[in-house]
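User: I've been trying to design a sequence by hand for this structure and keep getting stuck. Would you show me what you'd pick, starting by listing the structure so we're on the same page?

Assistant: Good idea, let's start from the same input. This is the structure you sent:
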């Protein structure tokens, strides 16, 4: 069974810039600053997180900081799921 991280990494492989290599990507790397993704990929990541992890950005909006690294996305997922489980 794929972990949340595995799902994110698999998805990122589909939106990486052609010159980027996922092999060098560290979980804490800033995806935009390191040149892994562009602004269009950010939109695709938002759609992926909504579909795959049931994150609702309509209430909170999209904070680019939450999407800047694998670690940030995992933290967003954890916050989102802990928030929804309290209701």
């Amino acid at each position: 069974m794929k972990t949340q991280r595995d799902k994110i990494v698999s998805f990122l492989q589909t939106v990486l810039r052609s010159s980027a290599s996922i092999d060098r990507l560290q979980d804490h790397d800033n995806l935009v600053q390191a040149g892994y993704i562009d602004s269009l990929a950010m939109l695709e990541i938002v759609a992926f997180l909504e579909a795959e992890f049931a994150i609702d950005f309509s209430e909170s909006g999209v904070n680019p900081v939450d999407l800047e690294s694998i670690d940030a996305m995992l933290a967003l997922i954890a916050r989102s799921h802990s928030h929804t489980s309290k209701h």
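That's my pick for every position. To get oriented when you compare it with your attempt: DSSP finds four helices and no strands in the chain. The mean pLDDT is 91.
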